[in-house]
Amino acid sequence: MSESSTPTVRRIAINTGGGDAPGLNAVIRAATLAALSEGWEVYGIRRGYMGLLEDVVDDEPGVFPLTANAVRGITHLGGTILGTTTRGNPFGLEVRQPDGTWGKVDRSNEIVDRFREREIDALIAIGGDGSLSIAHALHLKGLPVIGVPKTIDNDLSATDMTFGFQSAVEVATDAIGRLHSTAEAHQRVMVVQLMGRHTGWIALESGLAGGADVILIPEIPYDIDRIVEKVRERDRQKRRFSIVVVAEGARPANGEASFADATGRYGGIAERLASQIEAATGKEARAMVLGHIQRGGEPIAFDRSLSLRFGAAAVRCIREGSLGTMVALQGNHIRAVPLGDAIRDLKRVPLDSELVMCSRQLGISFGD
């Protein structure tokens, strides 16, 4: 629930949580400079919320001042100067028990208490659906929060775009393009696995731009026979190679997605498909998992600009007393939306989306 009062602000903090994404440092820089221009003090929290729970994190102060000098020249840098973690949920932190086993403890009240002790008036929490869900839960406990949507998956429904997504698409598109020449030279089928978790935005946009012959996404369950037929059709047309782009969460019709381990982490879909295609067609099929390279490196211009806009807008929200919200790109404007609404639904690829229709018109198969 958002609040509309205009509190007196003297000190804010910024943290980054979850997986990294190109553009995090640009958000940090914009938010820091905008807050400093308001006359506020700005502090960075290391590795999500760990900097509040531990005085020293990675041999550095857990909470430290963010000055203009501290954020100079970081807009173009990948990663985050604050550090991040995917295992920092204060509502269920893993700790070693006296008997040597691992368990989980709720330290969320400590987070709220540490904020109050440090007299921090608001937190800018930069993260995806998981990190923003934590931020929303902390807000319900009394922590003044503004969310900034970060995920290469582009799966937050309240914003037209999350920063980091377009940079990931650019990396994936370049990789797919580079595979064409080697696939054609060896007359192979190349199966490229991309990130995206439960949604297919990265695979769809990069597959379309990169000239894939087959794009498989979680929203459209596939039939292996249809994929095999597409490969054979290209052979008949004397196009003796094929590029199959698959989102990590794609699954066969009446089947399950591929998981790397018991934790529910996706993995193995490219190897499974390559084996099935090779067995059915007799053509050599190779699997390539692009992996974390999609998260790394410098953000492209679009993500730099969007990140800077998000960071500055988050400070405006604090100044105006619009707490418990998330900044979102809607059309050409940055707006504040209730944080609870922002994390309620994942943004999945609509089956009748223009991107899907365009791909089908170009002859790209979705395996259905």
Order of helices and strands: EHEHEEEEEHEHEHEHEHEHEHEEHH
Strand content: 15-25%
Oligomer: single chain
The global form is elongated
Low-confidence stretches: none
Structure description:
The protein has helices at about 25-35, 50-55, 110-115, 130-140, 165-185, 200-210, 225-235, 270-280, 300-320, 340, 355-360, and strands at about 10-15, 40-45, 55, 60, 65, 95, 100-105, 120-125, 145-150, 190-195, 215, 240-245, 285-290, 325-330, 335-340. With about 375 residues, it is α/β, with parallel strands linked by helices.
Task: Give a summary of the structure in a few sentences.
The protein is of the alpha/beta class.
Helix and strand arrangement:
Blueprint lengths: L10 E6 L7 H14 L3 E5 L4 H4 L2 E2 L2 E2 L1 E3 L27 E4 L5 E4 L2 H10 L4 E6 L1 H12 L4 E5 L15 H22 L2 E6 L6 H10 L3 E3 L7 H13 L5 E6 L21 H13 L3 E5 L11 H20 L4 E6 L2 E6 H4 L11 H8 L7
What tags apply to this protein structure?
368 residues; 7-stranded mixed β-sheet; 4-stranded parallel β-sheet; 11 helices; 15 strands; elongated
